[in-house]
Amino acid sequence: MDAVIIAAGFGSRLRDISESKPLTSVAGKPLIELGVRQAAAAGAGKVVVVTGHEADRVEAYLPQLAREAGIVIEAQRVDDWSQPNGFSVMAGASRVEGDFLLMMADHIFAAPVLAGLAKVGGADRGVTLGIDRRTSSPLIDPDDATWVKTDDCGFITAIGKTIPDYDAVDCGAFLATQELPAAIAAAIAEGKSGSLSDGMQWLADRGRAATHDIGSDERASWWLDVDDPRAHELAEAQAPAMLSEIYG
Questions:
Q1: Taking the complete model, does pTM exceed 0.85, yes or no?
Q2: What is the pLDDT along the chain (248 residues), one digit of tens a residue?
Q3: Other CB atoms closer than 10 Å to residue 157's CB: what's the count?
Q4: Partners of residue 212 on adjacent β-strands
Q5: Is 51:4 a contact under the CB 8 Å cutoff?
């Protein structure tokens, strides 16, 4: 299994802290290092990092990170990093075969979250999304979260930032098949913007988008979207303890 980490965006809400979101330090370690090490711990044999904004700086750091983390890292630069994130997914997926872990560079996770997600693929789904049913958690930014509505079997019926009815939140980690980039392309062909959520909804409409509930254990299900100064402050305070296998 390979992993794809999306690290192409502008990171506007972290600009006061860092000019490059993937290289933003959390307790002394760049976010992209945390993502790569977490992917490796979950079983990835190769990590494709999709770059865009500040691509030269991010790509220059990757060879050193590959040596230190003991894993193959390949950079895939997206043609236009200002486009919706689904274009980054398609670019990264073009460099892998078979199923892959899909992660966002600004999301960090307790080790059991990705380890559990990596084991739940199946022929009945084209993608499996890690979800958290603690929708009122203080670690979640409700103004930026991607919400999820599931059916009785745990398959997604609706996903997006503005859906009115939901029962879970998107954790920013996926076990994807090549159906996901194909779904994004199909959604674009139908006139959608090309976001990852567009592709997820396309699969959901066809009963192909499953979920993996990460549970409610405080340590084993910890995750954080480090997308603004408040979240960065939380990450600085909590990540060394919650990611002790990396910081220890």
A1: yes
A2: 999 999 999 878 788 888 899 999 999 999 999 999 999 999 999 999 999 999 999 999 999 999 999 999 999 999 899 999 999 999 999 999 999 999 999 999 999 999 999 999 999 999 999 999 999 999 999 989 999 999 999 999 999 999 999 999 999 999 999 999 999 999 999 999 999 999 999 999 999 999 999 999 999 999 999 999 999 999 999 999 999 999 98
A3: 17
A4: 130
A5: no
